[in-house]
């Protein structure tokens, strides 16, 4: 490959700002992770730290900061819901990323029958997974929860994406598919 045609490389150090820059360099789906505690109080936070672990065992992983107000509810109930957001969920993602007192005031939700009543954000979700915790691992300033997806629902909506502090909506471009398949 001709070195003149290669893009300039931005070499990163190991600091947390560089780490965040690395993960912020590509678009990610946005989710709101929700839970309900024993007293019936609702909790939730915006996250892009959710990933599939195994389709064979229907497990996913969620990373929750130790300072999150949702953490005790997940630890207590051993259940939560992952609500991947549709384009209609932008405002809610900002509310759930804040320290607002009543994050659920302006969203329609239903209690999960299998995730201990965790709120399912039916009006703004692209999809949601109702989960039960199978394992929890403490790593630095976070807890990683590996959970079994007991139920899931997908709606015919466009996904909300996040990259470098900005929102976008998935817009597939099939124009070049035939050209690429000819290669």
Automatic annotation (TrEMBL):
Keywords: Oxidoreductase. The keyword rRNA-binding does not apply. Residues 23-169 form the Flavin reductase like domain. Pfam families: Flavin_Reduct. Signal peptide: none annotated. This is Flavin reductase. It comes from Streptomyces rutgersensis. The keyword Transmembrane helix does not apply. Gene3D superfamilies: Electron Transport, Fmn-binding Protein, Chain A. It comes from the Bacteria.
């Amino acid at each position: 490959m001709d070195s003149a045609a290669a893009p300039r490389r931005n070499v990163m150090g190991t600091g947390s700002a560089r780490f965040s820059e690395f993960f912020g360099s590509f678009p990610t789906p946005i989710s709101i992770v929700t839970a309900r505690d024993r007293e019936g109080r609702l909790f939730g936070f915006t996250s892009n730290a959710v990933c599939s672990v195994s389709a064979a065992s229907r497990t996913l992983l969620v990373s929750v900061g130790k300072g999150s107000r949702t953490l005790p509810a997940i630890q207590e109930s051993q259940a939560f819901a992952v609500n991947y957001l549709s384009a209609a969920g932008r405002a809610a993602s900002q509310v759930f990323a804040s320290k607002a007192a009543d994050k659920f005031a302006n969203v329609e939700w239903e209690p999960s029958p299998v995730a201990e009543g965790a709120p399912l954000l039916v009006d703004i979700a692209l999809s949601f997974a109702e989960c039960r915790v199978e394992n929890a691992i403490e790593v630095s300033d976070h807890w990683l929860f590996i959970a079994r997806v007991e139920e899931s629902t997908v709606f015919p909506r466009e996904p909300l994406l996040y990259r470098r502090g900005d929102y976008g909506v998935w817009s597939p471009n099939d124009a070049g598919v035939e050209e690429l398949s000819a290669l």
